[in-house]
Write a structure and sequence with these properties.
The complex is a heterodimer of chains A (584) and B (257).
Chain A lengths: L1 E10 L3 H13 L2 E5 L15 E2 L10 H11 L6 H21 L13 E9 L4 E7 L5 H16 L2 E4 L1 E11 L2 E11 L5 E11 L20 H8 L4 E2 L4 E8 L9 H4 L3 E3 L7 H4 L9 H13 L11 E4 L5 H7 L1 H11 L8 E10 L3 E2 L5 E3 L5 E7 L4 E2 L11 H23 L11 H12 L4 E2 H15 L6 H18 L2 E2 L9 H25 L17 H4 L1 E9 L5 E9 L13
Parallel strand pairs in A: 1-2, 1-9, 2-6, 9-17, 15-18, 19-20
Antiparallel strand pairs in A: 3-5, 4-5, 7-8, 8-9, 10-21, 11-14, 12-13, 13-14, 16-17, 21-22
Chain B lengths: L10 H7 L6 E9 L9 E9 L5 H11 L19 E4 L2 E4 L14 E4 L6 E3 L2 E2 L2 H9 L19 H6 L17 H5 L6 H11 L7 H8 L13 H5 L6 H14 L3
Parallel strand pairs in B: 1-5
Antiparallel strand pairs in B: 1-2, 3-4, 3-5, 6-7
The chains are: A alpha/beta (584), B alpha+beta (257).
The structure holds flavin-adenine dinucleotide, iron/sulfur cluster and FE2/S2 (inorganic) cluster (FES).
The site of flavin-adenine dinucleotide has 46 residues of chain A, from helix 1, strand 2, helix 4, strand 7 and strand 14.
Chain lengths: 584, 257
């Protein structure tokens, strides 16, 4: 075991982690621990764009953006946070441009902008051009630009270090963060990083679904580490299903495709979104479009022999426009489906995309131990966190924005905290839990296989807690996850070595997914209403009287060592917008 | 008004929508190496039933998950965006997640081995550090002088287009590890680093061109390139790598960029 000491430790080198690192490296001695090489992070997969009311191509302002964010989130958004997001969006995009990001340009040389779902002029009048973009690889360019600037600032990375535990130390009755424990992939060695402040920026958790746009590595490690140390998770029932994933594969085809004029059609060629969202049509918010697609499928208007998908039609768009604005996604269709998007519509289905919930933080990125108490020295930003700026449903282009705005804020706040505070003593045997976990898995002779459990989990989640949920389907999921968690205790791995043991890490990742899937299902069961990404067929309406509140889930361990989940609630911060019915 | 999509239902689409999975038997011949077990590398055959429309990455997963958990490779996004899984497949550098089995003649055993020129650490995993070091050495970030403008720097669409191709790079190392010059001499920056230098040299906003050109003028710089075009063939992002290198060479001579 090795012990390292840094002022600030950042877990994750995606957009949020690197944006934080650029700030914190300037102000404090910082280490970034990341399980992937920074440029492999899934921020690089983002396509469509990053929202900011620059008003470069038409009238726009941050207040409209704030409103759209709150409405898009079905009023579960904390309005003070949304206002910060929309206001700081403008500088956040300009900062990236100054760092070198090659945005697409308008004829007069400013940053070009395009339409995106849910972003509107003057509180819902009509779609507005607010998304700043670099072709259909905006996330790639953000990730590259941030990495380039990390190189420039000399940020210190520990690549292929898997953080498996968060260390909290009790100081006079107050839980303070004191470090993290990491597993080095190359050697199997365990490292303890003691730090004055820690930022979790470890991304999403989409891999508990089968059809998903998320990378294999998005297994909620950060959320799980916090959870197991008794910290709450907020709004975990809210997961976004993006309308246009490649059929069966889940690979994302950006909403920008519809922003450019793409149209969704059923098997009769009908533009069905006109029925469900007369104004915004194909650009209504994602939850609305995903449900509309499944309604078409359920009512027998799906395409293909099994009627299990619909089409994204780009064939009426000029090939030059597709080449210039959507080169990557059209290539995905060619590579993975053998389809030519110039002439053929693309089969799509909703795909599990984005975790709105996560580790609760305030607007400075400080992690909350309950509704109000912060954990001194602990921060979170990006998809791992829940600020909450996305509420019940995130608007497209608001996450690339979130990682930049709150990544930056967390980076500054954490470094300033490090400057003002001393190291907190590490708990006794800081690496013990991780050592035990790793050794148990390595030595286990159990009969259960990771791949089977993972597959059963993913199939269960797709079948029961996706776009449509009912009490019965969620209960089925809770039960199944319970069974899988039992069986997980009996899991073994084949690779017993120390060197690059990805077999072992997949087993650990599965453990994280199982814990988080349970939190999601239990939170969803209790929310007897429909709001944003959480749709209950047995409670199809939003219920502001009983459920205008964030879910706060806590892990409890009884005297007998039995784990359970306790749900509590947190009020939504409302400033100037009163909840209204959401129509597009 | 609405385009009748059914008329457009082409043969390609029918093929894609043919839901019956047609699994065939395929042999994967994989170059194994694990110094914890043996200092020698060796070939190992795996047979599996798989739909040829699946990716090579899917096949590797199937082997790892169902036959041999010790098989080790890097991957993340599974759709050609993160650059994790460049490997030599049937003797050519490709991304495993962007290569469909049907496109590489599954009738014969498909060989899979680590990319060349970088030290193999285990199975398909190589040491990427020298690769990233070369990248960092070309100062891959925007260099500007003078005061920052309050708003964005202006750039015409044409100027933006000038370096569009090289912004696509995902640092997968397929190009560099297919370059015979790099195989013979690991000191050579390699195509990927030059591609990333190109991305800044030809960016109208950048003012560090001279500095970067000096670095590339070094004995391990662009002049080592023998224009074999392996890199361009290997690039999964379709970047015209050799052309980019040529443009950098020309800029060195003319000092115009
Ligand atoms: C296909 C796709 C397209 C998208 N398009 C858009 C878009 O157009 N606009 C938009 O706004 N949003 C988009 N999103 C959402 C957005 O891209 C993500 O929410 C955002 O990039 C997440 O960034 P992040 O920094 O939080 O996490 P990531 O970029 O996922 O980074 C996570 C980091 O954490 C590290 N990590 C994880 N676990 C550990 C561990 N245990 N130990 C150490 N390190 C760890 C990883 O190595 C990685 O570096 C898209 C998402 C997807 C999947
Ligand atoms: S130029 Fe192409 S092959 Fe080379 S590293 Fe970049 S993406 Fe990979
Ligand atoms: S796994 Fe990301 S490029 Fe292949």
């Amino acid at each position: 075991m090795k012990i390292h000491k840094y002022d600030t430790v950042i877990v994750g080198a995606g957009g949020a982690g690197m944006r934080a690192a650029i700030e914190s490296t300037k102000r404090s001695r910082t280490a970034v621990l990341t399980k992937l090489y920074p440029t492999r992070s899934h921020t690089g997969a983002a396509q469509g764009g990053m929202a900011a009311a620059l008003a470069n191509v038409e009238e726009d302002n941050w207040e409209w953006h704030t409103f759209d964010t709150i409405k898009g989130g079905d009023y579960l958004v904390d309005q003070d946070a949304a206002e910060i997001l929309a206001k700081e969006a403008i500088d956040s995009v300009l900062d990236l441009e100054k760092m070198g990001l090659p945005f697409n340009r308008t004829p007069n040389g400013t940053i070009d902008q395009r339409r995106f779902g849910g972003h509107s002029r003057n509180h819902g009048e009509a779609p507005v051009r607010r998304s700043c973009y670099a072709s259909d690889r905006t996330g790639h360019m953000i990730l590259q630009t941030l990495y380039q600037n990390c190189v420039k600032e000399g940020v210190e990375f520990f690549n292929e270090f898997y953080v498996l535990d968060l260390l909290l130390t009790d100081v006079d009755g107050v839980k303070k963060s004191s470090g993290v424990v990491a597993y080095e992939l190359a050697t199997g060695e365990i490292h303890v990083f003691q730090a004055k402040s820690i930022i979790f920026a470890s991304g999403g958790t989409g891999k508990f679904f089968k059809v998903t746009s998320n990378a294999h590595t998005l297994t909620g490690d950060g959320q799980a580490a916090a959870w197991r140390r008794g910290l709450p998770l907020e709004d975990m029932e809210f997961f976004q299903f993006h309308p246009t994933g490649i059929w069966r594969m889940g690979i994302l085809l950006t909403e920008g495709a519809r922003g450019e004029g793409g149209i969704l059609r059923n098997k009769d060629g009908e533009r069905f979104m006109e029925k469900y969202a007369p104004v915004m049509k194909d650009l209504a918010s994602r939850d609305v479009v995903s449900r509309s697609i499944y309604t078409e499928i359920r009512e027998g208007r799906g395409c293909g022999p099994e009627g299990d998908h619909v089409y994204l039609d780009l064939t009426h768009l000029p090939p030059e426009q597709l080449d210039a604005k959507l080169p990557d996604i059209t290539e995905f269709a060619r590579t993975y489906l053998g389809i030519e998007p110039y002439t053929d519509p693309i089969p799509i289905q909703p795909t599990a995309h984005y975790a709105m919930g996560g580790i609760p933080t305030n607007v400075e990125g400080e992690v909350l131990a309950d509704n109000t108490t912060v954990v001194p020295g602990l921060y979170a930003a990006g998809e791992v966190a829940c600020v909450s700026v996305h509420g019940a449903n995130r608007l497209g282009t608001n996450s690339l924005l979130d990682i930049n705005v709150f990544g930056r804020r967390a980076g500054i706040a954490a470094a300033e905290y490090s400057a003002d505070h001393d190291f907190v003593e590490l708990p006794e045997d800081p690496a013990q839990k991780v050592v035990d976990q790793v050794e148990r898995l390595r030595n286990s002779t159990g009969t259960e296989r990771v791949t089977e459990l993972r597959q059963e989990l993913q199939e269960c989640m797709d079948a029961n807690v996706m776009v449509f949920r009912t009490e019965q389907t969620i209960k089925t999921a809770v039960e199944k996850i319970g069974e899988l968690r039992e069986r997980y205790l009996n899991v073994s791995v084949q690779d017993k070595g120390k060197r690059f043991n990805t077999d072992l890490l997949e087993a650990i990742e599965l453990g994280n997914l199982l814990d988080l899937a349970e939190v999601m299902a239990v939170s969803a069961l209790a929310r007897k209403e429909s709001r944003g990404g959480h749709y209950r067929e047995d409670f199809p309406n939003r219920d502001d009287v009983n459920f205008m509140r964030h879910t706060m889930a806590y892990r409890e361990v009884g005297a007998d060592g039995k784990e359970s989940i306790r749900l509590d609630y947190k009020p939504v911060v409302q400033t100037r917008y009163q909840p209204m019915e959401r129509k597009y | 008004m609405s385009t009748p999509t059914l008329d457009k239902h082409s043969a390609a689409l029918d093929a894609a929508e043919n839901t019956a999975s047609h699994a065939i038997k395929v042999t994967f011949r994989i170059r194994r190496f694990n110094p914890e077990v043996s200092e020698e590398a060796s070939w190992q055959d795996f047979e599996l039933d798989i739909d040829p429309k699946e990716r090579v990455l899917d096949a590797l997963h199937k082997i790892k998950w169902e036959q041999d958990g010790t098989l080790t490779f890097r991957r993340s996004c599974a759709h050609g965006i993160c650059g994790s899984d460049a490997m030599r497949i049937n003797g050519k550098n490709r991304l495993a997640c962007k290569t469909l089995i049907k496109d590489i003649n599954p009738q014969k055993p498909i060989t899979v081995e680590a990319i060349k020129g970088l030290t193999v650490l285990k199975d398909l995993v190589v040491d990427m550090e020298p690769f990233f070091q070369a990248y960092r050495d070309v100062m891959p970030f925007l260099i500007t002088k003078g005061n920052e403008p309050t708003r964005e720097r202006l750039q015409t669409a044409e100027d933006r287009e000038r370096f569009d191709d090289t912004t696509k790079c995902i640092l997968c190392a397929a190009c560099t590890s297919s370059c015979p010059v790099f195989w013979n001499d690991g000191q050579y920056f390699g195509p990927a680093a030059i591609v990333n230098a190109h991305r800044f040299i030809f960016d109208s906003r950048d003012e560090g061109g001279e500095q970067r050109l000096e670095i590339l003028n070094d004995k391990d710089g662009v002049w080592r390139c023998r224009t074999t075009f392996n890199c361009t063939d290997a690039c999964p992002r379709g970047i015209e790598v050799t052309k980019a290198i040529q443009e950098v060479k020309r800029a060195l001579i003319t000092r115009r960029f």
